[in-house]
Design a protein that fits this description.
The complex is a heterodimer of chains A (397) and B (431). Chain A has 397 residues and is mostly helical. Chain A is built from 18 helices and no strands. In chain A, helix 2 packs antiparallel against helix 3 and helix 11 packs antiparallel against helix 12. The radius of gyration of chain A is 33 Å and the shape is elongated. Chain B has 431 residues and is α+β, with helices and mostly antiparallel strands. Classes of the chains: A mainly alpha (397), B alpha+beta (431). Chains A and B meet through helix 2, helix 4, helix 6, helix 7 and helix 9 of A and helix 2, helix 3, strand 24 and strand 26 of B.
């Protein structure tokens, strides 16, 4: 009697066991255990095939991933037929219509299509994908990324038919740009343009070329390529349809170009100002000291202004170095400019006769020099964009 | 003869009926109860009160920028939203039927929509159409199209959230991405990658545009992702660049006040918070209180996630970690043992180790992992030496999919070309 009472509980216990088995196999990422569950008639069987496929894909075993996805689809449909509805897997309750498939099946079909596109019908690109995914993180890990960049370059060259070849080249270009080699970055992007099959990829490549040119300060070349992008010109090899660059993308790139031009003009003006001030200081110092040798002696002796400022500059540099690296670098530049300015102005004041007018002019020139040096310092690393954004939107709370 | 005046009167009334639709714009906002849905929608100041779709068909009523959202229970409801080419058409409805990829002729149900205008910069007027479908079946695929008269959108397909009580084997998939901001070529690539993974819902962590009031940017953002958004509802959080613009709140139907709200999808309870509110005191007041109350009311959720824009933990050189947000939100995150916190703002990808009380703990079971995926197209930022709490960081455009099952929660991250970021993978088992 007691045993008979337990009989109705058996399916529930079995289902609970199935759920636990699926959970445990998923947690362990045990692809074999998942495939064993898939071979049963458990309600988790189709899910088990799906999880097995994901693990196989993560392991770059694309042939197995494809097979497991196909088994997921077959199993899900079989379970649905056995239960007399189309509601198995991923909670679908009914899916009347042309396909009659559950969401699990639809998703598995989408994954199969994706794998075919990327890894090939029989997973033939699996090894290339695995190598690419192994090397890409090395581009931004501590240490020299150039070995990884060279290895990725070799991978791209040796597999021209690789479906992701164009975007692989985009990653390589980004890596070389981070290394400060804009020429190499642009060369890789030119190759990527030739290699691109997907119109979205080609658009991305051409937009990235404009971005790299802007960041490298090659304004006229950036303007020409942006104009070509806006005109939606044909591909370099004339092949393949292009996706038109949207007005928003063009506007965004144009705004970046205009900002770069403005910053370039301001930067040149600041350097010109610094050069003028340096020349003026040299002339005044020579005139005040009486000879070049005397002027040189004035400069060698640190004036009291510099002695006063150097420790302050040291503290500023030390504090800034503990925070944002971009800000730290800028503070370095500004502090050094401050030391140089205070040194030169101090030497000048010691060498010349000081009147109120001269003192005011002196102070103004010193402010201009520090201001110009400050702009040059924050212009590096696009810190000026950060400052403009902070000014517009307020500081991060 | 005696019938003639009556007939004339009737003709006069019917003629006036067409002219009676009031097109005066009042920017006071307002509320409209949605029939059959058990909820109402509210528009803000800067938009007119929502009204039931009218009869006016403008010069070009062709639907565009079709996208889905959720306001009510995602198991049984969905909202289709769209604009028309002319922005003057007031008529609009949705045709729909159960089943995937149905031909238009089989969309035998029709539900009238609602509409309202909002005022953009330079007094430009934009007409938003919404159609709310409620009383749908859980875990079911539907086909639909929107429009009016002879102008209809293509047929799209969506599915509702599963009933996880009836189907404990259900899996829900969330796409997660943020910060597109002008990089619409990259955004289009990532939206395509996300769509290929067939998510149930997209979570966008803010800064879709550079200027929230710039309507053309919103249209670029939506157009680049229309195939995704027309088949998958999207929930967004306000970013500092959206700046609480009327454009943002008018174009995306979301639950509650659209700023700080929670919803259940499958096994997950997700709370969305606006960390760039108009009133800064909300950061330490309204938002953590709402979050606390929401998770306290849903202790049965298997998985708990929060999405807000600014990054609490970040190695980025542009913004970095936000101690104020850590102090305001962190205790609530810890109290309710959230599994994931999803952020944007820093244009790169980073994932922390599991954290509790601001300290690294040994496993995901004991702490919360904070993710920054702010690389949907905006210019990338660099990062400094990763802190001890950082698991992985890369300055790269990425998106992720979060898969929630009854007993497992996983996340996989991929770049714009679909290459996986293996160190951007996360998994947790429900014990």
């Amino acid at each position: 009697m007691a045993l008979a009472a337990l009989v109705p509980l058996v399916p529930s216990i079995a289902r609970a066991d199935d759920a636990a088995d699926f959970r445990d196999a998923s947690t362990r990422r045990d692809i074999d255990a998942l495939e064993r569950i898939g071979a049963t008639s458990s309600m988790w069987a189709d899910d088990a095939w799906v999880e097995a496929a994901r693990i196989a894909e993560a392991n770059a075993d694309y042939a197995r991933a494809r097979r497991d996805l196909e088994k997921a689809i077959e199993t899900s449909r079989a379970l649905a037929r056995a239960r007399g509805n189309a509601s198995i897997g991923s909670g679908a309750t009914s899916t009347t219509g042309a396909s009659g498939d559950s969401i699990l099946v639809q998703r598995a079909q989408a994954d199969l299509a994706r794998l075919s596109r990327v890894a090939g019908q029989s997973g033939e690109w699996g090894a290339v994908i695995a190598e690419e995914e192994r090397l890409l993180p090395a581009l931004q890990s501590p240490g020299d990324p150039r070995a990884a960049l060279d290895a990725l370059g070799k991978l791209a060259r040796e597999h021209p038919g690789y479906p992701r070849n164009a975007m692989l080249m985009v990653q390589i270009a980004a890596g070389w740009e981070r290394e400060g080699d804009a020429d190499r970055a642009l060369a890789w992007l030119a190759d990527a343009d030739r290699a691109a099959i997907d119109p979205l990829d080609r658009l991305r490549v051409r937009a990235d070329r404009v971005r790299v040119l802007i960041r490298a300060g090659r304004i006229s070349q950036a303007e020409a390529e942006l104009a070509a992008l806006a005109a939606n010109s044909a591909g370099a090899n004339g092949a393949g349809a292009n996706v038109a660059a949207s007005p928003g993308l063009i506007a965004n790139l144009r705004a970046a170009l205009e900002r770069a031009k403005l910053r370039r003009d301001i930067r040149w003006a600041m350097w010109a100002l610094l050069a003028l001030l340096a020349i003026a200081a040299t002339v005044l110092l020579r005139r005040g000291a009486g000879s070049w040798r005397a002027a040189g002696r004035r400069l060698v002796r640190p004036p009291v202004e510099a002695i006063f400022f150097v420790p302050i500059a040291g503290v500023l540099i030390a504090v800034a170095s503990t925070g944002n690296p971009l800000v730290g670098r800028a503070v370095w530049g500004i502090a050094i400019a401050g030391v140089v300015t205070s040194w030169v102005t101090g030497a000048l004041l010691a060498a010349t006769r000081v009147t109120l007018k001269r003192a005011v002019a002196h102070a103004l020139c010193a402010m201009l020099a520090v201001g110009a040096a400050t702009y040059v310092a924050v212009d590096r690393g696009h810190l000026v964009d950060f400052l403009v954004e902070t000014w517009r939107e307020g500081p991060d709370r | 003869m005696r019938a003639l005046p009556l007939l004339s009167l009737l003709l006069l009334v019917s003629a006036c009926d067409d002219d009676e639709e009031d097109t005066t714009f009042t920017d006071t906002g307002g509320t409209l109860e949605i029939d059959g849905c058990g909820y109402s929608i509210t528009t803000r100041i800067g938009a007119e009160p929502p009204k039931v779709s009218g009869k006016i068909i403008g010069m070009d009523p062709t639907p565009r920028l079709v996208h889905l959202g959720i306001v009510g229970d995602p198991k049984t409801s969905i909202v289709a939203q769209w604009r028309t080419m002319d922005d003057t058409t007031t008529a609009g409805s949705i045709r729909w039927a159960q089943g995937a990829n149905l031909p238009a002729a089989q969309l035998t149900n029709e539900t009238k929509g609602v509409r309202f205008r909002y005022e953009g910069t330079g007094s430009a007027m934009y007409m938003v159409h919404q159609a709310h479908l409620c009383s749908l079946e859980a875990g079911t695929t539907y086909s639909y199209q929107v429009g009016t008269g002879d102008s209809w959108s293509p047929v799209y397909t969506f599915h509702t959230a599963p009933d996880v009580t009836a189907h404990p084997d259900a899996e829900t998939v969330f796409g997660y991405v943020g910060d597109s901001r002008g990089g619409y070529d990259v955004w289009a690539q990532l939206a395509t990658q996300i769509q290929q993974r067939m998510p149930d819902l997209v979570l966008f962590s803010g800064d879709a545009t550079t200027i929230g009031l710039a309507q053309p940017e919103w249209e670029e953002f939506q157009a680049a992702a229309e195939p995704l958004f027309a088949s998958t509802p999207v929930v967004l959080t306000n970013g500092n660049h959206e700046a609480n613009a009327i454009n943002f709140y008018s174009q995306f139907a979301m639950p509650g006040d659209q700023e700080n709200f929670g919803f259940t999808y499958g096994f997950s309870r997700i709370f969305v918070g606006n960390d760039s509110p108009d009133n800064p005191s909300d950061i330490t007041g309204v938002i953590p209180q709402a979050m606390d109350a929401d998770f306290a009311a849903h202790t049965d959720a298997r998985w708990r996630m929060m999405m807000h824009h600014r990054c609490q933990w970040s190695s980025g050189t542009r913004h970095g970690s936000d101690p104020a947000l850590q102090a305001a939100f962190g205790p609530i995150v810890d109290k309710h043992k959230l599994d994931l916190v999803l952020n944007g703002h820093e244009h790169m990808f980073e994932m922390t180790k599991p954290l509790f009380g601001g300290q690294v703990v040994t496993s995901n079971q004991q702490g919360t992992v904070y993710v920054v995926a702010g690389g949907a197209g905006a210019e990338l930022y660099g990062f400094g030496t990763p802190a001890v709490w950082s698991q992985y960081v890369e300055s790269v455009h990425t998106a992720a999919v979060i898969r929630a099952r009854k007993d497992t929660l996983t996340m996989e991250t991929f770049r714009a070309d679909g290459t996986a970021v293996p160190s951007g993978a996360y998994s947790k088992t429900h014990l």
